Amino acid sequence: MAILSRVCNHHSANLRYSSSTATFYYVQERRELALDSEGDMGRHYSTRDFFRQMPNRLLARYFEAHGVLAELDFAAMKEAQPDKLFEAWLELPDGQRNAMDADLRDIFEMS
Asked: What domain range includes position 16?
């Protein structure tokens, strides 16, 4: 977890590290948070469910790294209640949303 913090702190100062590196660190921390990874076969991905399952602090870091949704106060959002986030997500341009959704799907599949 300390590694993720260092990478995110570094990322805040220097936005040049790759998306795949960021994805790896998000997945690693997500795995640490998982209580039991058995029985995950056959899980269905949806963006809304992904937002519901992912801790707000990790969502905030992901979107900060991509320079979007800065107007959202992730700290004020209740965990597992991403309604405002999902509404803002739907307002993003399709191309931008589709590219990030591919990242999120990768994170989901690796978690």
From this structure: 2-110
